[in-house]
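So, can you check what follows?
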Amino acid sequence: MNSNLTIVIPAYNESESIKDVLEPMRVFAGETNASVIIVNDGSKDNTLDVLTQFKTQHPDFPLQIITHSLNRGYGGALKSGIMHVQTKFLVTMDADGQHRLEDISKMFDKLTRDKADMCIGNRNFRGSNFSRNLIKKIVLFFVKKSTGIKISDLNSGMKMYKTSIVKSLLKYTPNGMPFSDTIVLLHHQFRYKITEQEIIINNRTGGQSTINYRTAIYTVIEVANIIINFFPFKFFAYIAMALLFFSMAWGIPLILARHGLSVGTSFLLLASMNLIFFGLILENIVRSRFEHYTYMTDE
């Protein structure tokens, strides 16, 4: 199994935690023949020095270090690492020590057993504080309603992929933290099978999380962009239904009072109908693009 596996890890200012990640990963790679790619994403601390020193001390460790001179973001780092993968499968992990190597085999077994194309490491909302979990649940609820996707953990950093498939989808993904959400939605859109495996999250071994409220806002914006680009009819239909509801709540009392339709009510009705037609047009465009993509990949 693992002779066909590469572990891809993005690292930004993780000099404190990466030390505790490297040694067990070296042992794991020795036991399984797995390869490791760590992307130093423009770190301002001595992350690169730690990586270079460890590689020098352990020349048998199949570790490839990729360095960005400037920070490109979580997604940018993952894309660099993924594009260098030569094995059939790959798994992404974080550099903060929260993910366990023991879960890799479980995820591979689940991927194989379910004949899936992606396996998400489901954290069951562990490893985050209340506010971050609340944001995740809101985003997940909105995405589920808009796309029909049936998953429990949208933005887990631990995911297993079929390399050829994820490489073909990278051109659609952002460079920032929303990469995690986007890559799941892309697999769903292009009809690739997604499964989940429950994983255990450890406490951070060092460093500090770069996720904050700005990341949450950016994630919501990116998810909205993906839904508009890949599921436009549902997106605009929800807005149209809301406008229709307000127009009825505004207009029905006026009609019952024999005042006729107001300008505001008429505007909301026309806006809702226009959004429905606009969503239908975009939906056909998206389907055409999807069919073209499917044809090209089948060839």
User: Anything to note?
Assistant: Residues 232-298 form one domain. The beta strands are 5-11, 35-41, 63-68, 89-92, 118-122, 159-162, 194-198.
